Amino acid sequence: MAYQKSGSLIIRPISAKLDRDVEALTTMDPYVFIKIGNQEMKSRVCADGGKQPNWEDQLNFVISGEDQAYIGVWDKRTLMSDSEVGSSIFPLIKLFDTKYHEDWIDLFYNGQKAGSLRLYMEFRPTIPAGQSQGEGVFQGQGLSTGQGFTGGQGTGKLGEKEIYTGELKGQNLGTQQGQYNYPSGTSQNYPPSGY
């Protein structure tokens, strides 16, 4: 079945247990390299991580119909080209229904197992205009973001700053104007300018 999914994909490399060592005299400096369609991203290098590196990176991708990801662990080198330790092709279809995935992924090099990589992945599908997502979050001064709720509690945000909490009443018409009950002691000019 062909999935034509679109949305955002967050991938967080956590750690690896590598069986293959590509350094003869020094300790490996591994990093994670991921390619989805024409998008390529790398984690930070885990200096002297050897066969048990760990990372705290978050790599953000835009999905627009891609159905697989190349995921590899590479060794950073200074005098030579970087070397692949092991890789895998991950089917993104696993994320389209579950939205979240955290597990060990087997890595291979020339058909032989080269180790395992632990990843956290989160897929956030694009919601077409006018469809309901069923959440009560709204933005700005009482503007629904089209997430399709007709009443309830929500937190208003302007950019990344939380600026007020209250109740929104409106209709499920996609992105629309709603009625916002402002916190006591404030006016409809809330939030103050400069946010």
Quick description:
The protein is 3% helix and 49% strand. It is mostly beta strands. Strand 7 (100-109) and strand 8 (112-125) form a beta hairpin.
Structure keywords:
single chain, 195 residues, mainly beta, Immunoglobulin-like, 2 domains, 6-stranded mixed sheet, 4-stranded antiparallel sheet, 3% helix, 49% strand, elongated, disordered C terminus, C2_dom, C2 domain-containing protein
Walkthrough of the structure:
The structure is a single chain. This protein has 195 residues and is mainly beta. It folds into two domains: 120 residues, C2 domain (Immunoglobulin-like, Sandwich); 43 residues, no CATH class. The protein is elongated.
| Low-confidence sequence ranges | 133-195
What percent of residues are in strands?
over 45%
Order of helices and strands: EEEEEEHEEEEEEEE
Quickly count the helices. Answer: 1
Stated plainly, the CATH topology of the largest domain is called Immunoglobulin-like
Radius of gyration: 22 Å
CATH homologous superfamily of the largest domain - what is it?
Answer: C2 domain
- Total domain count: 2
Q: N-to-C terminal Cα separation, in Å?
A: 46 Å
Gross morphology: elongated
Percent in helix: under 10%
Number of strands: 14
CATH architecture name of the largest domain: Sandwich
Strand order of the largest sheet: 13-10-9-11-12-14
Largest sheet: 6 strands, mixed
- Which structural class matches the secondary elements? mainly beta
CATH C-level of the largest domain: Mainly Beta
- How confident is the prediction overall: mean pLDDT? 75
